[in-house]
Design goal:
The structure is a single chain. The protein is mostly beta strands and 182 residues long. The chain has one domain (2-170). Helix content is 13%, strand content 41%. The chain contains 3 helices and 12 strands. The radius of gyration is 16 Å and the shape is globular.
Length: 182
């Protein structure tokens, strides 16, 4: 059921400096350090250096969709919004997101590079301080987001997650950082 895995982490300042990444930025940056699977839906977020990273940006307003679900942060990169991190009050270290489903984006109405992946679902496990985020991709899972998130919380994906973590590869070889950390 899970077709992709991406582990994001905030790099230490010394590793950022060695890789010519801004140190002391106001908006935290999470770099992809590990991946598994063959999911192509995040290609639009890759930098010219072939790094995959997101900025942890506060939502303009806390998005409350119903009494138990909310989003206070979103992930953005390359002038694109990856998506809001929808969490449940009772399970704040789990979240879900999905791509923008509109064929065009922005005031200029540019083609949405995520439109092809609009039905996919991103399930996430978050560290309490947002220094690490693991993203698990469920292809065509958007319409079942809450059910899939509950399955994640209940341990229904544990075997697949363990397999993906154990078989993950380095996404980008950051100088001064242990790219093999699990």
């Amino acid at each position: 059921m899970l077709v992709g895995y991406f582990k994001l982490a905030m790099l230490p300042d010394d590793a950022k400096a060695q890789n010519k990444i801004k140190v002391g930025a106001i908006v935290p940056r999470l770099d992809c350090i590990r991946y598994a699977g063959n999911y192509k839906g995040l290609e639009a977020f890759k930098s010219p250096k072939s790094q995959l990273f997101f900025n942890l940006t506060p939502c303009r307003e806390i998005i409350e969709t119903h009494i138990k679900r909310y989003a206070e942060f979103c992930l953005c990169a390359n002038s694109l919004n990856f998506g809001s991190l929808y969490k449940y009050l009772d399970f704040s270290n789990y979240a879900f997101s999905y791509p923008n489903a509109h064929p065009t984006i922005g005031k200029e109405r540019k083609p949405n590079p995520l439109y092809v992946f609009r039905n996919d679902l991103y399930l996430m496990i978050l560290s309490a301080d947002y220094t690490q985020i693991e993203i698990f991709v469920v292809e065509d899972g958007r319409n079942f987001a809450e059910t899939q998130l509950q399955t994640l919380i209940d341990g229904g994906f544990d075997a697949e997650i363990e397999y993906m973590r154990n078989n993950s590869q380095t996404f980008y070889n950051y100088i001064g950082y242990d790219n093999n950390c699990q």
